[in-house]
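Exercise 7b. Backbone tokens:
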């Protein structure tokens, strides 16, 4: 693995986790909390999302093996899922694969929203989990997996910074600025999802190579 692959993986994980896009949701769910409570929620959400993605990265292949799912099939399925999320991001919307209206309504009634729905499924949702599993398959050696661990940890740190700074980010960027950032990440994610699907199709149909 060279530096370009590591940067590509970092960009992919960051795009699908989409910490900037989570800022408006975070502000909405914590609007009635004190500053101290909001910071505590940000800490818990960022740490929980990071742990979930690390667990997915190091256990995903075993889960696929248990269910008899080939990595090529998972690449196609995961790529389609990521593409659907990317399309929602290009329209500056939260994908229903991350957060449904029913879940949003239930979240308003919860005392703590740090783990559900912030960590799961807004930050570490099906798309995020699928992407780290796919990247784990690409990184075969132990030190490469440690690099992926570091990438996930850095993304978790960025999530923590964004959530802890949600109020100033929301005030300075505004809805338009946040939507522009989300759309840029969505475009990157769309390209990555197509690459996943192409790799999966080549694996399923060798004649395409």
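Sequence design result:
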């Amino acid at each position: 693995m060279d530096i370009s692959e590591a940067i590509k993986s970092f960009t992919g994980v960051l795009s699908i986790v989409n910490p900037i896009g989570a800022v408006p949701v975070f502000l909405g769910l914590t609007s009635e909390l004190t500053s101290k409570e909001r910071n505590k929620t940000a800490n818990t959400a960022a740490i929980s999302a990071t742990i979930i993605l690390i667990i997915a990265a190091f256990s995903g292949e075993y889960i696929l093996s248990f269910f008899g799912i080939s990595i090529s099939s998972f690449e196609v399925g995961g790529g389609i899922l990521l593409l659907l999320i990317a399309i929602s991001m290009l329209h500056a919307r939260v994908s229903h694969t991350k957060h449904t209206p029913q879940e949003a309504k239930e979240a308003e009634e919860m005392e703590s929203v740090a783990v559900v729905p912030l960590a799961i499924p807004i930050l570490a949702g099906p798309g995020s989990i699928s992407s780290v599993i796919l990247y784990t398959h690409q990184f075969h050696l132990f030190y490469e997996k440690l690099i992926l661990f570091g990438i996930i940890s850095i993304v978790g740190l960025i999530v923590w910074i964004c959530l802890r700074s949600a109020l100033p980010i929301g005030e300075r960027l505004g809805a338009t600025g946040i939507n522009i950032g989300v759309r840029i990440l969505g475009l990157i994610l769309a390209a990555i999802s197509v690459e996943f699907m192409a790799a999966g199709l080549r694996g399923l149909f060798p004649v395409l190579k």
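Instructor comment: The two ends are 22 Å apart (CA to CA). The chain has one domain: 3-204.
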